[in-house]
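Hey,

Quick one before I head out. I ran the complex with magnesium ion overnight. Inputs first:
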Amino acid sequence: MDVSYILDPLNEHQREAVCAPEGPMLVLAGAGSGKTRVLTHRVAWLVQALHVSPLSILAVTFTNKAAQEMRGRIEQMLGYPMRGMWIGTFHSIAHRLLRAHWREAGLEQGFQILDSDDQIRLIKRALKELNLDEGYWPPRQVQWYINGHKEEGRRPHHIEEPADAQQRELLRIYRTYEELCQRFSLVDFSELLLRAYELIKNNEPLCQRYQQRFLYVLVDEFQDTNAVQYEWLKLFAARHRNIFVVGDDDQSIYGWRGARVENILQFERDFHGANVARLEQNYRSTANILNIANAIIDNNQGRLGKQLWTSGEEGESVKLYVGYNEIDEARFVVDRIQSWADQGNAYSDAAILYRSNAQSRVFEEVLVRSDIPYRVYGGLRFFERAEIKDALAYLRMIAGRQDDPSFERIVNTPTRGIGNRTVEQIREYARINQTSMWNGARALIQQRELPSRTLSALVAFVDLINQMAEAVQGAALADAIETMLQRSGLITHFAKDKGEKGQARKENLEELITAARNYEHNDEEGMDPLSAFLSHAALEAGERQGEEWEECVQLMSLHSAKGLEFPLVFLTGMEEGLFPHQRSLQESGRLEEERRLCYVGMTRAMQILYISYAWSRTKPAEKQSDSIQLGGRVRHNSFGDGVVLGVEGRGEHTRVQVNFESVGNKWLVLAYANLEKL
Ligand code: ATP
Ligand code: MG
């Protein structure tokens, strides 16, 4: 069998890794050395040279985009589609397992996925059930606590009753939150992973079945796996030990979300006798870019130590620009992109990278003014927009009435005269009777104790959902969505707003119909198209959809740039406090992660790298909010001194709740409040 087309485009070390004998294998190598290339070629090699069935291969990576690319490259190499090969993100694979084995996993068939915002909503509900004040228990911090434990594989019953009163209370919230999730069959992102892990771990027959099925496990970006993900991989590979992982300790950038770079060292202990390959030649960047990236990362302690060299040209020197302010910085960047494009280069080959998503706005403004097409990755993404989430909530209610977060979202959207007090009443009924809000609403209707206007509004809502469910039965997905948008009044609601925002929202809703029309349903998991589409929306929400390779400048955070490469890169906003991030200056270990992030950013560049910062930056509110601490004391010009109880929202929309000694609780928009930290 001719496999030269698989092996020829590789150097000697890469080839050795691709053709390595079966058994555990770790490829540890720096940026741009061909790790991802080795991984894809290994899959092709397994199929072509060793005649491994694609059904026996499980390949995991970190983003949907990377997964798609990987599949594309393999199919291109082999010349036929890899149907049946499991290739995806940890989340999508976990989801697939749970859909296939919902019963064994202790879920209901129609379980729904909670994204981060939905999760916050449910946490708020848990706080209400426990009669706790959101001001003192900021939902974001509770979320952090819950997810942190789940990422380490800890359920509430694994946690010893803490002596500290506050910790005890947090544990109680975690417990209540879990009860709510179970009651309504809701699964958040960290739950997907944990539950899929427990499913396999606690079910011997299932465990054996998958161990026999996935004879080859391959993992990209291994340095960013967390505890649960790694345990999961170990389970799959326990029998055959054919586990092939590639990673770079210097690019571990998710420590703040539970990733454990130590897994790389642990791998060699857990899989005794593992082959370890190192790749040292970089094929991506010019020598000048590589040197500066190496110099930065060299400052970190405790690295596993890797050399990286290139036989490529020296290239242009790396340039630094100091802007007068952030607008000047953005103008400079856009100017350079324009003259670069004037030389015949494609806009899509240029990337603007930043530390925090809020920084994209200024660049966007300047790009718009210069009439340059651009695309922002990882901002507020399509499926995360408010109007889209409204529409999805209707669809979720149609698919299954017990979904409380969706109920709360749409019961009065568009407004139909069901006020907060009524919703509170329904919630209370649901809490006391341990049932869903939908059931609660119906019970309250029957008891007829509501004021008559509220009663008829609620009856109308319940009827609306029931009628819509009936109307869309058997309809094609896109038609069902269209019907829902009409009947719910959502389209008319947003169309009424003639401003730019309202029109954009209406267009987004129409876009949802198109998304549904283009959505390819594969019914491998035995899901109906609507449930499948809803799961797809929840899982894809983390990433931008669409024509990624259109000719437009690419804007993204450093975190989402992982694994990608661009001929022209701008690393922007490199000011102390912004990047490196304020928090990293306060907490030990965080600065090293910032350095790795910087290394990731620089090594995205192939030919030209610019670094820039601004002399003075109009304080983005986000920066201020970092210095505002919960429980901290602040002073306001007219309200006097007070204590910060809560922080909500992001960027310019950040609001803080302060309990002032003289006037009591107030919510203030941080950007305008001019608070002085005491
Ligand atoms: P990162 O650490 O950023 O994820 P990586 O180690 O996964 O990088 P790849 O993305 O696989 O590196 O490869 C970097 C670039 O080098 C790609 O454009 C790839 O096609 C190219 N490349 C890798 N190996 C070779 C080779 N042997 N010959 C020519 N080009 C190569
Ligand atoms: Mg890679």
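Residues 35-36, 563 surround magnesium ion (ligand 2) (CB under 6 Å).

Talk tomorrow,
K.
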